[in-house]
Amino acid sequence: NLPTLLPEIDALKGIEQPKEFHREGDAFIHTRLALKALPKYAPTSLVFATLLHDIAKSQTFNQNENGKITFYGHGEKSAEMAKEVCKRLVFTNGITERICSLVQKHMDVFQIGKMSKSTLYKFLFKTLPNNETSGELKILNRADLLASLQTEKDCQDYFRDVVRQFQKENQTQIEPLVNGRDLISKGLKPGPTFGVLLTSVFKFQIEKGIKDRNEALKLLDELIQSELAA
Predict the structure, then answer these.
(1) pLDDT confidence of residue 229
(2) Can you give the C-alpha Rg of the chain in angstroms?
(3) What is the pTM of this model?
(4) If DSSP codes are grouped into helix, strand and coil, which group holds residue 54?
């Protein structure tokens, strides 16, 4: 039975959630609804990631004197607990890693409104497209939203609206204005400093809306001088 096989899931019964985000009920009900919202033939990794995505809510539950309920850090803690569950169920290392990655990242998309432009760019155009679990992550997020009694349209629009708004503000997918060849031309030798400098310029490029290569090169010169002086 459930208390024996998965006591972490059974422990979610009666764990209240903020009603402004979870009108469906406690964390156990939410988990059941999320599983129900998955596609019929969802892969094992996605099913168990959905099952385990909130298991740490029983341990991270906090309610302040004003009645506000929070579960700070429950994504990371749930991933730690999910790893132990996967070990108990004798899953392969590959399946375990995929499940834990999905569980750990399942809250990332809900933080997009708080991300800086450079972090959002990296998340939308670098992390998600290049992460082999990104397709499953989107499905998990959809199930999470549906289980929170959001509408199907809300789920479909969540990613789309953010991507469209970002592309509208920046006109196109942003490409770096400077690269390693520029550093070599300035007398620097390839090494760890390369990545630091290029990342810094690219971050400024996004945050400040820099679109002129000469302006980016001028910024690169300033960063190089600062790095050499350090």
Answers:
(1) 60
(2) 22
(3) 0.65
(4) coil
